[in-house]
């Protein structure tokens, strides 16, 4: 009995050490894509990105990604439409960095059916995500907009732009658990689309690109000129925090 008791006591002392070792190994296995990119002048290794869901077809060549969508693919949760769509292909990188910006150029020349779309995304899980994109509407106009989904409910903020716009740059910026999406037609001058708080976006996040076709359609979206920079969304220079 005494030998068994001593063995149990020894095992009890080993558990905390084992837990610390596991935690250390998990930390060592984590690759922070933002940190790696910043150390390489902002360059993103496209082959290091990970799919949440794969598309109908994808090609990664040089610094360009081509994603071909499948019909009936979408991201939306509950609000207004009262359905939950969660099957759009998403290609992302991971980070624990709290301050940075991500820039990408999108080309949606082939979009041709209502709601065909492509853009940037921060997909954390089915009920917590953020996206910015251009959605095709008809031959006259399309929707430039963003969706923030917190705790299972999506909202959609949009503005109409001419249908002949076929490329758009986006800049996604993080300041802790607050986020900013901007857009640009030339990759130089960016305009704010949305500032929002993401309840599930305080620690490790995944972010990147997506494309989908919610109705009976398919098209190929082209992503290029992807890079990571120091946070371009500067701290507010007016009223101080409470």
How would you sum up this structure in a few lines?
This protein has 242 residues and is mainly β. It contains 2 helices and 16 strands. Strand 13 and strand 14 (191-197) form a beta hairpin.
Structure description:
The chain is mainly β. The protein is 14% helix and 47% strand. The longest helix is centred in the N-terminal third of the chain and has 28 residues, at 2-29. Mean pLDDT is 92; it is low at 22-26.
Structural features:
14% helix, 7-stranded antiparallel beta sheet, 242 residues, mainly beta, 16 strands, 2 helices
Q: Could you outline the blueprint of secondary structure elements for this entry?
A:
Elements: H1 2-29, H2 33-38, E1 50-53, E2 57-61, E3 64-68, E4 75-77, E5 84-86, E6 90-95, E7 99-107, E8 117-125, E9 128-136, E10 141-150, E11 153-162, E12 167-175, E13 178-184, E14 191-197, E15 205-212, E16 220-229
Antiparallel strand pairs: 1-6, 2-3, 3-16, 4-5, 6-15, 7-12, 7-16, 8-9, 8-15, 9-10, 10-11, 12-13, 13-14
Strand content: over 45%
Multimeric status of the protein: single chain
| Coarse morphology | globular
Main-sheet strand order equals: 1-6-15-8-9-10-11
């Amino acid at each position: 009995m005494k030998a068994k008791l001593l063995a149990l006591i020894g095992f009890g002392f080993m558990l905390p050490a084992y837990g610390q070792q596991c935690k250390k190994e998990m930390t060592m296995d984590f690759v922070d894509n933002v940190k790696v990119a910043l150390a390489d002048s902002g360059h993103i290794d496209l082959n290091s990105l990970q799919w949440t869901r794969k598309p109908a077809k994808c090609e990664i060549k040089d610094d360009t990604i081509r994603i071909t969508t499948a019909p009936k693919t979408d991201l939306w949760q509950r609000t207004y439409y009262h359905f939950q769509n969660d099957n759009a292909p998403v290609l992302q990188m991971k980070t624990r960095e709290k301050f940075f910006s991500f820039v990408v150029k999108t080309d949606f020349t082939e979009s041709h059916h209502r709601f065909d779309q492509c853009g940037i995304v921060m997909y954390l899980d089915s009920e917590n995500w953020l996206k910015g994109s251009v959605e095709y509407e008809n031959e006259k106009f399309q929707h430039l907009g963003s969706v923030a989904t917190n705790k299972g409910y999506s909202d959609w903020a949009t503005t109409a732009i001419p249908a002949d716009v076929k490329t758009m740059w986006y800049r996604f910026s993080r300041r802790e658990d607050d986020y900013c999406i901007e857009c640009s037609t030339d990759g130089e001058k960016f305009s704010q689309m949305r500032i929002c708080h993401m309840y599930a976006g305080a620690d490790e996040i995944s972010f990147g690109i997506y494309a989908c076709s919610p109705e009976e359609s398919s098209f190929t979206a082209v992503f290029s000129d992807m890079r990571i920079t120091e946070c371009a969304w500067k701290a507010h220079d007016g009223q101080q925090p409470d």
